[in-house]
Amino acid sequence: MPEPFNPYQSPGGDDAPGVGTGRYGIDWVPILAWPVAFGANLIVPLRFAWLEAFGASRAGIVLMLLVILALGWLVCLVKPLESRRLLMGSVVTAVLQVIPVLHFAIGLVVILVMEFAGLVDGSGDGPAFSDQHAFGAILTTLLVGAALLGVSYLFGVALQTQLPSRWFVPPGATEEDELLL
């Protein structure tokens, strides 16, 4: 008996090559939304980091921000399910900058660790990130960024329990993939 006609199936069938990377092809929503979410989450951290950095430290901060932006795009390409969680959580993290307790707490903990390691000038006499502390600025940016990304991802996982699951499923995902959510 022939299989029933499925009007929603791709004309190429199940073994047709994908459009891009990964299992589902390219999911353009996270790729286009990532720079917006990333930029929205920079308001408070960048403002305070920029006030405390000079010279080579500022160049290091910009370099690490570009690295984090590129890594985010890589996650969007390779892990479309996780990237949607990260983006949804990034919205919450960006909104929390209105009262930036979370951002201050993460920044303070990282600065204290960097001061303890001797990578940041915590005397209060001058900038925390001078030319002598450029590596400290780079490492601080990386650690604060990683912590905020982790918190954003956890917010996204929590939101996934409350929002429609179709918001988190990339185009081309199957019902089995949706069960993994």
Outline of the structure:
Keywords: Membrane, Transmembrane, Transmembrane helix. With 181 residues, the protein is mostly helical.
Give a written overview of the molecule:
The protein contains seven helices and no strands. With 181 residues, the chain is mainly α. The radius of gyration is 21 Å and the shape is elongated. Residues 13-22 have low confidence and may be disordered. Keywords: Membrane, Transmembrane, Transmembrane helix. The chain crosses the membrane at residues 31-50, 56-78, 90-114, 134-159.
- Radius of gyration from the CA trace? 21 Å
Separation, N- and C-terminal Cα atoms: 34 Å
Indicate how many domains the architecture comprises. Answer: 1
Contiguous runs where pLDDT drops below 50 for at least 5 residues = 13-22
Summed over residues and divided by their number, the pLDDT gives a mean of 81
Keywords: Membrane, Transmembrane, Transmembrane helix
Transmembrane segments: 31-50, 56-78, 90-114, 134-159
